[in-house]
């Protein structure tokens, strides 16, 4: 798999010679498919040659040896005292076998690598200790200063101070002056007052710092803004003839720290006039100007000093490029770099290249990333681990995942330690490529190195694992995070728990939830709902009840439906005694965590009603009254419905009659009783209640008319049904889609409804306003011939009541009796209007074509029915 790197970075579809230049080999043509594209493309260079070229470039530095050193140091565990000494001896032996030629320069290089690339302070300390125990080497002030800086930058001040206290107690003789080392140590550790006290004791004993120690102390005083002491120490440096370029740079930094930029510039100009200026000093001022957003002033200053030719500008250029990039002025930084390269032959160091490449990668400017890597390779600039990580990210970004993985798998050959960005890129790219197992493998490797993916990468991997059903790996991933107290986004955990609940692994979801609670991570409302619903489906209402209370403690408000599901689950245990106890325990817990209100009691009455336990609902009502809370209208409606749902109709009627003495019966209570009696098929009681309702001056709801007309039609009491339609008109209500569909359906079945309509018209009951509805009933009954004057039956129906899918299916059935072409035309028209056909729609068409002997067309519609995922009924299956 291979592409011209630069053009792949540019468009993923063209080729150039850039990759050949980068790898230093001739182009060859091999077809391949890359993750960046979905089409097969001709490549220029085999992937193995790209990998080989990059490996050779990566090996050009000293990173392999440094990486080996830290791999050995990391192998030492501090878990057990005895094992620790055993492993330390093993580490000492392994380091000795490396045959290191110890020198100050090597020790400084190892410590710098450990801090900048491995980020491993403990291993740096181990190496410092091991080196100090070798007879061939004595620590110097520079090596002590280096370890002090590492501890200080890692903000391990307690460890740093313990180190210095131990040094003072034992007065180690490592070929370094004892008092100088202590002064430098406390100065670098952010304790300038202690350093000055020790310095004073030294002077009292007739001892003094050397030039190195003075400058470490001076710089620390400037960093800690002890400006009065700075002047004193600077005078001492001048008196002893130690003043040099470092002194000037530190003193210039003092002005910058005090925000005295004019004075700093004046000081720098004096140095230039006196011939004492240096490039580092110019860089110090340039950085200060950039920090204050004075970029134009910094540009003029650099141009002026460049024209003077008094100092080397490389340090200032390096600072300028880095600060421009950090400030988001990436284009300006790149333009400056190109200008200085062509005009002055300036070549930035690897650190500046890394800054630019990193910024370009984040902005997905891949062609420019390629150009900079080309440039580094051409100029034989040895890449460090940051460069190598950037190269891995680049190959991931351009879709050359196989090359990135080959380099990643070979990392031990050239000392590459992947950083968090590289791990994130690899994981994201694998997930995007559908290689979820490989992404998970990279994650486990990153955990071994002490890295954990960022929230976005964690979320991407979690989504991929959940999507592919790899829930065990997802569970491991979450456990890794929880063990390290790392908290990716709540939505990620919510998604995982939701997936576990949907796959009936609710217990696993609950365990994750419990671990999250252990580290005080408040879960989302949807997480609680999914867990509660999951346990309800498993008939584990006791756990669901605990979660219901817990979600309220965390500030979420459950709905009445959620209460219903929990209560129904509690009541479904098959043990009435245990059920009652759990029900009232939940009620007591609920009342203890929230102020008792009528609404809370109503939730429990509602739940008990759905569980068909009106006895529990009645007890809740009594508890509410004993607590001094008067039941509201909703309480009475819910209590009434609980009797009706349990088919205790006499109790419902008794309760309804009792209510007459407590409150005026209004529409909601009448509607509850009428619809309940209709569902119980007690038409006489329902009609009497409707009549009573009308006599009381209460207008019935649509539900009352719909349920009653439906029941009367099923009972073939069409005369009363037609009277109710007239009554509906009298109270000012309109025919609903439900009522209209019921009338058309029964008209299709028989002519009795139309006959009832005609009878009532003949006895002079006024139904003139519904004359069109009467014509429709007659048409659907087959008693009235529909002439060409009614060109659009849909519009006629729409003038009576709103059409819905059920209406269209009735129309299809009507047309299929006479004309299948009209039926098909209606099918396409309803689809165009946004009505999604259901199973009944297709069966009407299939059976219609069969009725007319058009079996081929029936077969085509049957296949279309299967494609839509519908299964035909038995009558249609006879054809299949």
From TrEMBL:
PPR repeat ranges per the UniProt record: 349-383, 384-418, 419-453, 454-488, 524-558, 597-631, 666-700, 804-837, 838-872
Keyword Zinc appears in the UniProt entry: no
Protein name (database record): Putative tetratricopeptide-like helical domain-containing protein
Family from the record: Belongs to the PPR family. P subfamily.
Keywords in alphabetical order: Repeat
């Amino acid at each position: 798999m291979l592409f011209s790197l630069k053009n792949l970075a540019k468009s993923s579809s063209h080729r150039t010679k850039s990759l050949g230049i980068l790898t230093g080999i001739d182009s060859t043509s091999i077809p391949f498919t890359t993750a960046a594209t979905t089409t097969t493309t001709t490549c220029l260079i085999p992937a193995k040659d790209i990998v080989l070229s990059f490996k050779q470039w990566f090996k050009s530095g000293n990173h392999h040896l440094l990486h080996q050193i830290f791999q050995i140091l990391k192998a030492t565990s501090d878990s057990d005292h005895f094992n620790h000494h055993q492993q330390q001896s093993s580490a000492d032996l392994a380091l000795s076998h490396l045959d290191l030629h110890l020198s100050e320069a090597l020790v400084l290089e190892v410590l710098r690598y450990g801090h900048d690339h491995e980020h491993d302070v403990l291993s740096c300390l181990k190496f410092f200790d091991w080196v100090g125990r070798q007879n061939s080497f004595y620590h110097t002030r520079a090596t002590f200063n280096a370890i002090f800086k590492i501890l200080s930058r890692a903000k391990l001040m307690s460890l740093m101070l313990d180190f210095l206290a131990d040094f003072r107690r034992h007065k180690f003789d490592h070929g370094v002056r004892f008092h100088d080392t202590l002064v430098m140590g406390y100065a670098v550790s952010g304790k300038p007052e202690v350093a000055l006290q020790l310095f004073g004791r030294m002077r009292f004993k007739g001892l003094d710092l050397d030039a190195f120690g003075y400058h470490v102390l001076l710089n620390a005083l400037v960093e800690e803004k002890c400006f009065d002491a700075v002047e004193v120490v600077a005078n001492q440096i001048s008196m002893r003839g130690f003043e040099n370029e470092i002194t000037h740079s530190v003193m210039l930094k003092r002005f910058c720290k005090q925000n005295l930029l004019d004075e700093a510039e004046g000081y720098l100009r004096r140095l230039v006039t006196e011939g004492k200026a240096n490039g580092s000093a110019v860089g110090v001022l340039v950085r200060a100007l950039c920090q204050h957003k004075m970029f134009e002033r910094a540009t003029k200053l650099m141009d002026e000093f460049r024209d003077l030719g008094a100092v080397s500008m490389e340090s200032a250029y390096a600072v300028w490029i880095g600060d421009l990039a950090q400030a988001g002025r990436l284009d300006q930084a790149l333009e400056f770099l190109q200008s200085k390269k062509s005009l002055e032959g300036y070549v930035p160091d690897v650190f500046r290249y890394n800054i630019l490449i990193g910024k370009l990668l984040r902005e997905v400017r891949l062609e420019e990333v390629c150009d900079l890597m080309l440039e580094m390779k051409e100029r034989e600039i040895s890449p460090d681990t940051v460069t190598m990580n950037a190269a891995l990210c680049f190959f991931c970004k351009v879709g050359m995942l196989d090359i990135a993985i080959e380099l990643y798998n070979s990392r031990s050959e050239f000392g590459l330690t992947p950083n968090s960005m590289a791990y994130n890129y690899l994981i994201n790219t694998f997930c995007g490529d559908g290689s979820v197992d490989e992404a998970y493998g990279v994650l486990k490797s990153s955990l071994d190195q002490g890295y954990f993916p960022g929230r976005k990468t964690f979320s991407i991997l979690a989504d991929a694992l959940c999507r592919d059903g790899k829930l065990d790996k997802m569970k491991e991933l979450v456990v890794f995070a929880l063990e390290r107290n790392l908290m990716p986004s709540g939505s990620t955990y919510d998604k995982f728990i939701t997936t576990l609940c949907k796959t009936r692994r609710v217990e696993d979801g609950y365990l994750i939830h419990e671990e999250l609670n252990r580290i005080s991570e408040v879960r989302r409302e949807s997480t609680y709902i999914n867990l509660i619903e999951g346990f309800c489906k498993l008939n584990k209402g006791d756990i669901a009840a605990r979660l219901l209370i817990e979600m309220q403690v965390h500030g979420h408000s459950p709905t009445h439906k959620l209460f219903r599901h929990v209560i129904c689950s509690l009541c479904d245990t098959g043990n009435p005694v245990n059920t009652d106890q759990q029900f009232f325990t939940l009620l007591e817990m609920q009342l203890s965590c929230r102020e008792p209100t009528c609404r809370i009691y109503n939730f429990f009455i509602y739940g008990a009603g759905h569980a068909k336990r009106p006895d529990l609902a009645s007890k809740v009502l009594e508890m509410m009254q004993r607590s001094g809370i008067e039941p509201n209208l909703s309480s009475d409606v819910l209590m009434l419905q609980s009797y009706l749902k349990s088919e205790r109709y006499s109790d419902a009627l008794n309760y309804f009659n009792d209510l007459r003495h407590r409150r005026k019966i209004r529409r909601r209570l009448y509607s509850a009783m009428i619809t309940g009696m209709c569902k119980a098929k007690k038409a006489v009681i329902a009609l009497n209640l409707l009549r009573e309702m009308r006599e009381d001056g209460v207008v019935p709801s649509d539900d009352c008319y719909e349920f009653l007309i439906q029941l009367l039609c099923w009972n073939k009491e069409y005369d009363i049904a037609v009277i109710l339609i007239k009554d509906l008109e009298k109270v000012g209500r309109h025919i609903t889609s439900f009522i209209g569909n019921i009338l058309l359906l029964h008209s299709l079945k028989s002519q009795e409804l139309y006959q009832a309509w005609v009878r009532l018209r003949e006895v002079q009951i006024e139904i003139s306003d519904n004359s069109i509805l009467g014509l429709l009933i007659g048409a659907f009954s087959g008693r009235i011939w529909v002439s060409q004057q009614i060109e659009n039956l849909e519009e006629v129906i729409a003038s009576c009541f709103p059409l819905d899918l059920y209406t269209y299916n009735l129309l299809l059935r009507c047309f299929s009796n006479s004309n299948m072409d009209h039926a098909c035309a209606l099918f396409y028209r309803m689809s165009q209007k946004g009505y999604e056909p259901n199973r009944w729609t297709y069966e009407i068409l299939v059976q219609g074509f069969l009725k007319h002997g058009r079996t081929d067309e029936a077969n085509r519609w049957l296949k279309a029915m299967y494609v839509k995922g519908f299964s035909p009924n038995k009558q249609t299956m006879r054809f299949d």
